[in-house]
Write a structure and sequence with these properties.
- This protein is α/β, with parallel strands linked by helices.
- The chain has 2 domains: about 130 residues, no CATH class; about 240 residues, Zn-dependent exopeptidases (Aminopeptidase), CATH 3.40.630.
- The chain has 14 helices and 15 strands.
- It has a 6-stranded mixed sheet with strand order 9-6-12-15-13-14, sandwiched between helices. Strands 1-2-3 form a 3-stranded antiparallel sheet.
- Helix 9 packs across helix 14 and helix 11 crosses helix 14.
- Bound molecules: zinc ion (ZN).
- Zinc ion binds next to loops.
Amino acid sequence: MDFFVRVIVFCLCIVTAVGADNDYVTIKAKAREKTEDIFTRYEIDNTPKNRNLFKKINGNITIPRNDVLLAGKIYALPVRSVNYAGEPLVELLSLSNEGDAALIEQYNDRMKTKGMRRDDFRVSGKLWVPMWLTGTSKQKAKNKRSYHRLFGKGYSVVEKIDNLLEGQVFYIDPGHGGPDPGAIGKRGKHELHEDEYAYDVSLRLARNLLSHGATVYVIVQEMKDGIRDTRFLNNSDRERYYGGQPISRGHRERLEQRAAIINKLYDKHATATQHSVIIHVDSRTTTERIDIFFYHAPGSERGKATAETLLQTLRDKYNQAQPGRGYNGSVEARDLFMLNHSKPIGTYIELGNIKNPNDQVRLIEPRNRQVIADWLCDGYLALIQKSKK
Ligand SMILES: [Zn+2]
């Protein structure tokens, strides 16, 4: 009996917490759509707990073995739609801290940029509240969260997944920026600037590394851009160096500035394992397709080992994701200023040929830029695993 009383009290709390007038967000299943697909689109972790919740709120349905839902049927998601009139989310949802409020806000913004919803909750007054975010242990979650305005709307909160990269310092160096756009490709009426695409992948990688407990410095920064979920990235020259100094016009000077910033920070972290990750996009003749490839400083054994681990990780990932595609990346030693003049273990990464229409797809699709960042992060995780053996 006591159990039932408690359950009822608990339910009342939720109702008062989110306001009386709330409902689940619903979707209409497309042909052959799986629960897993829908979960991915709405960023719902595909855990047994969330699957059970999904079944429950849909009237205790049974999900078929092949995971395919009934086409055309309306399903409720474990995301509530709550009336919102501009009040602080902490109050509206009885949250214990601002961090939870920011997560919920950013979830809404991401769902909008990804096209899962058309409206802005601030305008429509319908806030989406993911049930898995409101049900977690608050204090624990608070320690696992950090804020980085640099990553922009929808991405500034970073949730720590684990501490696998604790004690590792990364200098993410997106190529070019400021007055220097780097290589330029054309796609329809759009001009693709190397610095913008390298920057977006850099931010995504930085964010991933942070989520594993690494210390991360992004050497070129643009506070307005953040991580962008659009195909064609606006070209700007507002980028500055970490620390705020402008990027100079002279090529040699630019590289010297960068290396100086990294080397100064390096000395501060002298006892840590430190990596610089220099991200560029190559430019070749339009017809030449190239896969992601790597350079290390001549004579650097650790640089070579790092690049080879990243290469192997990408090869494995491509084989899993696109069997039969093959992957023609390479690792080479090359005399490059940033490799020879910065103190950390340096890896210079070329993401593709900005002039080739096929390679351009790797760059312009936001999902692809995220996948590159995910795989590179996996590469660094693999490297750490190896070094522990
Ligand atoms: Zn470049």
